From TrEMBL:
It comes from Paraburkholderia solitsugae. This is Sel1 repeat family protein. Gene3D superfamilies: Tetratricopeptide repeat domain. Signal peptide: none annotated. InterPro entries: Sel1-like, Sel1_AlgK, TPR-like_helical_dom_sf. The lineage of its organism: Bacteria, Pseudomonadati, Pseudomonadota, Betaproteobacteria, Burkholderiales.
């Protein structure tokens, strides 16, 4: 073999040996997985190289997907206190029969400087263990990291074990999350913007501000925010009314089969309104009813069918209330609009001549904080015969008495007696 060829081979080998882990990471990010694997395997005792090998086997990047092999590399890297390895492997172990090791690794990763680990730990406590205080503590350790701020807002909105609801603080944390985005989680900005927009729409945690709500859903476009933006355009909330454009947007989202979680009730309610009124589409009562039936009683869907039905904007009327309208004891972002909806139901029942139903529905609205409902209840009583009014008040006092007894636990004890 000529000497010059031996020299070329030697230089090539030396160049290969000279490549370090950062070169492997560059190759990995460029999706040159074969070269990345060769470099990482050449530095197989390095914690960072072990982390990337774990990822490659976990996701099948340049190698056959092999979770067992991935776990081996994760364990080696985490054993060297590599923060990202501890976080990723710890998060994986949270779904194991014994999540305690995962909790420990995430806490160690957080202490090593990875705030994402505290966010993962917080969501574990929030959604799996349902422990508000532990979740809040974990999120707060994450400081101003995007997911930690968003998680803190969710805990403060819902409350939980040893945590009181604080809507005002929740709103502030969501604003802070948008101000501290994580480039790797840009898709989550839409969720934060949507939820914060509803805060402003319904006056949760502060004054109602429809203009700010529309600005949020316009600034962070996605299927969820586009659906809500169209809703606001259709009704003229915080933006000039553009009914035709709103219906066209809803039709695009529907035909594109775009995945919706939070905003689905707005889509189906909006299309039900469109077909019921003939705005943007040909009037079709059958389609209006079919879209109304698709509104699930979650999120905004807990009040939209009843609110729109009582106002004659979709099929159904006020008889829907017991099927689709609910309320809880704790304040939430929909509390004010739920109160208004119950009052609208009461007014609808009053027009139908169901004075007893109107009286009771207005009571729910009043309990939820609607001042006008108290005045309306007096007007309903005035329409009743003296006998009916007395019966309505007696029935209400019985219900109040049973409610008070149930809170003392007396009724539960009576039911347990043989």
């Amino acid at each position: 073999m000529p000497n010059w060829m031996l020299l070329v081979i030697a230089v090539t080998m030396l160049a290969g040996c000279g490549q370090d882990v950062t070169d492997g990471i560059k190759a990995y990010k460029a999706e040159d997985f074969a070269n990345a694997k060769r470099i990482f395997e050449g530095h197989s005792t390095n914690g960072d190289a072990q982390l990337y090998l774990a990822r490659m086997y976990r996701y099948g990047e340049g190698v056959s997907k092999d979770l067992k092999t991935a776990d081996v590399w994760y364990q080696k890297s985490a054993g060297q206190s590599q923060p990202e390895a501890m976080r990723e492997y710890g998060a994986e172990l949270l779904d194991s029969p014994d999540p305690s090791k995962g909790v420990r690794l995430l806490d160690e990763a957080g202490q090593a400087g990875d705030p994402r680990a505290y966010a993962d730990l917080g969501f574990h406590y929030l959604y799996k263990d349902r422990t508000g205080k532990l979740a809040l503590d974990a999120f707060q350790k994450g400081g101003n990291y995007f997911q930690a701020l968003y998680g803190t807002a969710q805990v403060l909105e819902m409350g939980g074990t040893a945590v009181s609801q604080d809507p005002k603080a929740a709103r502030a944390k969501m604003e802070a999350a948008l101000a501290n985005p994580d480039p790797e989680l840009s898709g989550m900005l839409e969720s934060v913007a949507f939820n914060l927009a509803e805060y402003y729409m319904y006056g949760f945690g502060g004054p109602t501000d429809s203009a700010r709500a529309f600005d949020l859903v316009s600034k962070y476009p996605g299927p969820e925010t586009r659906t809500l933006a169209a809703w606001m355009q259709f009704l003229g909330m915080g933006t000039p009314k553009k009914e035709q454009e709103a219906v066209a947007e809803w039709k695009r989202i529907e035909s594109g089969h775009e995945r919706l979680i939070y905003s689905e009730p707005y889509l189906w309610a909006g299309l039900s309104m469109a077909y019921f009124s003939g705005i943007g589409v040909e009037k079709d009562a059958v389609k209006a009813e079919l879209y109304r039936q698709r509104i699930l009683p979650v999120f905004a869907g807990s009040f939209l069918p009843a609110l729109l039905g009582t106002q004659g904007l979709i099929p159904g009327g006020c008889e829907l209330r017991r099927l689709t309208l609910s309320h809880g004891e704790k304040p939430d972002r929909y509390r004010a609009v739920l109160a208004m909806t119950w009052l609208e139901v009461a007014k609808c029942e009053n027009k139908k001549g169901d004075l007893s139903g109107a009286f009771q529905s207005a009571r729910v609205a009043a309990d939820l904080g609607n001042v006008d409902a108290r005045i309306f209840r007096v007007s309903v009583l005035a329409q009743m015969t003296p006998g009916d009014a007395k019966h309505a008040l007696m029935f209400e006092s019985v219900i109040d008495g049973l409610t008070a007894l149930s809170q003392t636990g007396v009724l539960d004890k009576a039911e347990r007696k043989p």
